[in-house]
């Protein structure tokens, strides 16, 4: 990290001190496009993606989001986000006052998100409008940027907040990959690799704190 009085570009938060802290260890990604790219890669390798079909008896990996956390005592946290039309493809993301402002390479900027415990609907409401207004205040260059998309989703939150990965207690041949919450996208490759090692090679390197709790047995 470094402190600077000359942040790059225009997409920067207002600073009463005239100083900004820059973190050069983070990266940005478009989750929707990343998901689409992964699906395309699976199909290109001859894989098949089947939707709306129950999982086989075993072996099966249960990566079923909020619904799949119920046996383990987890739940969902709703997050509302928006996409603004503003081109800043070469500028860093902004994190200020608890809000993420993330420029993408396609001329848009994503902002988010709310954090709503115990809310399971996926509609957007006044809380998102307040978030958009907050983003415009934090980064004045977004004041007139049109909103091109609004959405909401339910993030799966395990009781420990850590990802939940490993054998499902009491169900031989069944495995869980869930509870990523706010780090699910970043942790997904590591979770997949740990499960692949365990299922295909018998190598168990899953941290104890990630394992599904025994309360799910039976």
Describe this entry's structure for a reader.
With 218 residues, the chain is α+β, with helices and mostly antiparallel strands. It contains three helices and eleven strands; from the N terminus they run ββαββββββαβββα. It starts with a strand and ends in a 17-residue tail after the last helix.
Low-confidence blocks of residues: none
Q: What Rg, in angstroms, do the CA atoms define?
A: 20 Å
* Tally of DSSP helical segments: 3
Secondary-structure element series: EEHEEEEEEHEEEH
Average pLDDT number: 89
Helix content: 10-25%
Report strand %: 25-35%
SS elements, strand count: 11
- How far apart, in Å, are the first and last alpha carbons? 48 Å
Largest β sheet strand count, sense and barrel closure: 6 strands, antiparallel
Structural class assignment: alpha+beta
Outline type: elongated
Quick take:
The chain has 218 residues and is of the alpha+beta class. Helix content is 21%, strand content 25%.
Task: Please describe the structure with a list of short key phrases separated by commas or semicolons.
3 helices, 6-stranded antiparallel β-sheet, 218 residues, alpha+beta, 3-stranded mixed β-sheet
Write the layout of secondary structure elements.
Blueprint: E1 2-4, E2 20-22, H1 31-44, E3 60-62, E4 75-85, E5 94-96, E6 99-103, E7 108-112, E8 116-117, H2 126-138, E9 147-157, E10 164-167, E11 174-178, H3 184-201
Parallel strand pairs: 3-11
Antiparallel strand pairs: 1-2, 4-7, 4-8, 4-9, 5-6, 6-7, 10-11
């Amino acid at each position: 990290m470094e402190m600077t009085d000359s942040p790059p570009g225009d997409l920067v938060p207002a600073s009463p001190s005239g100083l900004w802290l820059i973190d050069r260890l983070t990266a940005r990604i478009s989750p929707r496009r990343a998901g689409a790219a992964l699906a395309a890669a699976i199909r290109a390798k001859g894989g098949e993606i089947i939707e709306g079909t129950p999982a086989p008896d075993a072996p099966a990996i249960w990566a079923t989001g909020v619904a799949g956390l119920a046996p383990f005592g987890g739940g969902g946290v709703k997050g509302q986000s928006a996409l603004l039309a503003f081109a800043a493809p070469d500028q860093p993301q902004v994190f200020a006052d608890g809000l993420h402002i993330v420029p993408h390479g396609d001329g848009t900027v994503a902002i988010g998100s709310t954090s709503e415990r115990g809310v399971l609907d996926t509609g957007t409401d006044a809380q998102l409008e307040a978030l958009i207004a907050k983003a415009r205040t934090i980064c004045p260059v977004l004041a007139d940027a049109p909103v091109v998309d609004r959405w909401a989703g339910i993030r799966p939150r395990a009781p420990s907040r850590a990802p939940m990965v490993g054998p499902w207690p009491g169900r031989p041949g069944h495995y869980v990959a869930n509870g990523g919450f706010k780090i699910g996208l970043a942790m997904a490759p590591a979770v997949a690799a740990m499960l692949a090692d365990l299922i295909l090679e018998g190598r168990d390197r899953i941290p104890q704190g990630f394992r599904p709790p025994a309360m799910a047995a039976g």
